[in-house]
Design brief:
By secondary structure, this protein is α+β, with helices and mostly antiparallel strands. The protein has helices at about 10-30, 35-65, 65-70, 75-90, 100-115, 130-150, 155-175, 180-195, 200-220, 275-290, 310-315, 335, 365-370; strands spanning about 1-5, 5-10, 120, 125-130, 250, 255-260, 265-270, 295-300, 325-330, 345-350, 355-360. The longest helix has 30 residues, at about 35-65.
Length: about 375
C-alpha cells in the first residue's frame, strides 16, 4: 500500500495505472491513431474492470457484505476471468496491432515485477532478487518485441510467447513453486513454436547448448543448506531476510503472549483495525487458511491506539479467536517498531523468525498459500 493522505492505494495497482499512462504517450509518439491507442490500452483497462468486478462478485458470495467485497481480490478465479476477457479483446483486434499489444503487456509486466519484490534460489546459490533478474529478462524481451511490433508475423509472436513462458517458469523454479504440468505446457508450446515458426538450425543449437550448460552448472554446484538462517546470523530489521522486533502483548482474555514462544514455527504477523475495510475483507480468507494448515500460526495484532472503542475490535474479532492468536497493541509501541503506516500490513516469518515475505495491503488465501508452500 501507498499512503496518500488518509487514503491507502495498492502499489501494484498504482504501477499498473501509471504504465497505461506511459503507454499512451509512447503509442502517441509512434504515430498510432486515437482509435488504435484506445483499442490497445483499452484492452488492459477492460481487463482491470473484469478483475475488480469479478473480485467484488466473489467477495459478495463469501462475505455477503458489499463494503467488504469492494476490497476483495478474487483469487485465482478472477485471474482466469481477466485472462479470458483480455484474450477475447485481443482476438477482436486488428492483426497489425498485435505487436503493440504484446509490447504493452510486457511493459505492464515489467512494472508489476519491479513493484513486487520476490526472492528465491538460483543454481543452488543463496537467495537472489528474482524480481530483478526477471525484470532484466523482460527488458530483453521488450527489445526484441520492439523490433518487430510494426510488422508482426506468426514466428515473432510465437517466440515472444515462448520467452514469456520461459521467464514465468524461471521465476516459479527459483521460488520453489514449479509443478510438472507447467513444464509440460511450456514444452508443448516450445515444440509448437519450433514446428510453426521454423527457427534456424543455429538458433536451436544455441538454445539447447544454453540449457545443457545451465543443467551442468546446477549439478556441479554444492547443494544449498536447507536450514533457515539462524537468529545469530540474520540482522534485525523489517526487510526480507531480517528478524523483526519481538514483542509481548495481551490477549483478549488478559493473558500475555510472547512472539518468541513461536520460534521454531512458521508465523504470520498481521496488523489490523476494526475500522479498516481491507482488514475486515481479508479475515475470512485468513481463517480459511488456518483451517487447512496447522503448521502455521497467525498472530493478529490489533492497532488499538487507532480504534475509537476497544469494544469494537473485540466484538469484530470474536468469531476468529479460534483461528488466530489475537493480541492488542494498546500503547502503539509494536506498531511503531514495525513502522505500520498502512493497514493491513502482514509479515511472514520462517522457523528461525526471519522475514520471508511481507505485504502492505489486504492478503488472501492464495497469497498465503504461495508464501508458505
Amino acid at each position: 500500500m501507498v499512503a496518500i493522505g488518509p487514503l491507502n492505494i495498492r502499489f501494484d495497482l498504482l504501477i499498473f495505472l501509471l504504465s497505461l499512462a506511459v503507454l499512451y504517450g509512447i503509442f502517441r509518439f509512434l504515430g498510432l491513431s486515437s482509435k488504435q491507442r484506445e483499442a490497445v490500452i483499452g484492452t488492459w483497462f477492460y481487463g482491470f474492470l473484469a478483475w475488480k468486478g469479478s473480485a467484488i462478485a466473489i467477495g459478495l458470495l463469501t462475505t455477503r457484505d458489499l463494503s467488504l467485497a469492494l476490497y476483495a481480490t478474487g483469487g485465482a478465479w478472477s485471474q482466469w476471468i481477466v485472462a479470458a476477457v483480455v484474450l477475447w479483446f485481443v482476438y477482436r483486434l486488428d492483426r497489425n496491432l498485435l505487436g503493440y499489444w504484446m509490447l504493452s503487456g510486457l511493459l505492464i509486466w515489467l512494472g508489476m515485477t519491479l513493484a513486487v519484490p520476490v526472492y528465491g534460489t538460483i543454481l543452488n546459490l543463496s537467495d537472489q532478487p528474482i524480481h530483478l533478474w526477471s525484470a532484466i529478462s523482460i527488458l530483453l524481451l521488450l527489445g526484441t518485441t520492439w523490433r518487430w511490433m510494426h510488422e508482426p508475423n506468426r514466428g515473432n509472436i510465437l517466440w515472444t510467447v515462448c520467452g514469456v513462458s520461459g521467464i514465468w517458469l524461471f521465476k516459479l523454479y527459483a521460488v520453489g513453486q514449479i509443478q510438472w504440468w507447467m513444464i509440460v505446457i511450456a514444452l508443448v508450446l516450445f515444440g509448437l513454436t519450433v514446428y510453426l515458426a521454423r527457427p534456424s538450425k543455429k538458433a536451436v543449437q544455441v538454445s539447447i547448448g544454453v540449457l545443457v550448460l545451465l543443467a551442468v552448472v546446477n549439478a556441479v554446484l554444492p547443494e544449498k543448506a536447507t536450514q533457515s538462517v539462524t537468529t545469530e546470523a540474520a540482522a534485525s530489521g523489517l526487510n526480507i531476510g531480517q528478524i523483526p522486533p519481538s514483542f509481548e502483548l495481551q490477549r483478549t482474555d488478559g493473558s500475555t503472549f510472547d512472539l518468541t514462544s513461536l520460534r521454531g514455527q512458521r508465523v504470520v504477523v498481521n496488523f489490523w483495525a476494526s475500522w479498516c475495510p481491507p482488514c475486515r475483507a481479508e479475515m475470512p480468507d485468513m481463517a480459511a487458511f488456518t483451517k487447512e494448515r496447522d503448521d502455521v500460526t497467525i498472530v493478529a495484532v490489533n492497532t488499538t491506539t487507532s480504534e475509537r472503542d476497544l469494544g469494537d475490535a473485540v466484538s469484530f474479532v470474536e468469531p476468529y479467536e479460534d483461528a488466530f492468536t489475537v493480541v492488542y497493541d494498546r500503547n502503539g509501541q509494536v506498531g511503531d517498531a514495525y513502522r505500520i503506516q498502512a493497514m493491513p500490513t502482514t509479515y511472514v516469518l520462517d522457523e528461525s523468525g526471519v522475514i520471508i515475505a511481507k505485504q502492505f495491503g489486504a492478503i488472501d488465501k492464495n497469497w498465503l498459500d504461495a508464501q508458505l508452500n
